[in-house]
Specification:
Number of strands: 14
Order of helices and strands: EHEHEHEHHEHEEEHEEEEEE
CATH class: Alpha Beta
CATH topology: Rossmann fold
Number of domains: 1
Shape: globular
Helix content: 25-40%
Low-confidence stretches: none
Largest sheet: 8 strands, mixed
Distance between the termini: 26 Å
Number of helices: 7
Strand content: 25-35%
Radius of gyration: 17 Å
Structural class: alpha/beta
């Protein structure tokens, strides 16, 4: 059997059909598994496994050809090694990234996710579930201001979600780059998703018109923002 690719799909915001109907980003994630009826698991740790968020996950994915499930870390937690290894895709929700990573580390989840990624399970997520895969992410886990948070390091550099969805994102990232706290960042608008194969960016796709992605770098003259090519997802599967 051919070796499956290591894939990560990072969504800047508005995942779980938040701004598209049908659920375009969710359908795109499932398509990358190469499986006719893929198993997909939701990790809602960043919101403390909030019931409403879990419900949104099922409302989106039960409309598609797949076998959805979720793994709680704040209730009775199943055998994580067995459950995560059995998936074709793992979808991580948004919320408090710092708290999510702390809980994950206590349960040994990072090592299990890395093992799943290497075996070909598609890893995906939105907001906290997008930035967690990178060396660092721009997070609002603290109430006072956006900060740089060290993350799992499966992807290089820094990721900033909600680039067009929250007014302080663009200026905050610019200041962090100018001060040298960030040297290079991938900035994702709501509705935009960056698809990585191994550790290289394959493409950026979008579920809505106007969603963009940017490569933001530090230079001697200051931060430079370069727009990346974006492919709009079709409303109907091809």
């Amino acid at each position: 059997m051919a070796k499956r690719r290591r894939q990560i799909i990072a969504i800047g915001g508005a995942g779980l059909a938040g701004q598209s109907d049908p659920p375009l980003l969710e359908r795109y994630i499932l398509a990358q598994t190469g499986t006719r009826n893929p198993a997909v698991c939701f990790l809602g740790t960043a919101t403390g496994d909030a019931d409403a968020y879990v419900t949104r996950f099922y409302a989106s994915f039960t409309r598609l050809r797949c076998r959805p499930t979720h793994v709680p870390l704040f209730g009775r937690t199943p055998d994580l090694r067995a459950v995560l290894a059995a998936q074709d895709a793992i979808y991580v929700g948004g919320g408090n990234t710092k708290s999510m990573l702390a809980v994950w580390r206590d349960w040994g989840v990072p090592a299990l996710l890395r093992r799943a990624w290497r075996s070909g399970v598609v890893l995906a997520g939105v907001s906290a579930g997008a930035i967690c895969w990178f060396e660092s992410g721009i997070t609002d886990s603290w109430a006072d201001r956006l900060r740089v948070l060290p993350c799992l390091g499966m992807l290089p550099d820094t990721c900033c979600p909600h680039y067009d969805g929250e007014p302080d994102r663009r200026p905050s990232l610019g200041r962090l780059v100018a001060r040298g706290e960030v040297t290079r960042a991938l900035a994702l608008d709501d509705g935009a998703a960056a698809h990585f194969v191994a550790r290289r960016l394959l493409r950026v796709v979008a579920s809505r018109p106007g969603s963009r992605a940017y490569d933001v770098r530090r230079t001697r003259s200051g931060p430079v923002e370069t727009a990346l090519a974006v492919t709009r997802l079709p409303a109907r599967a091809r």
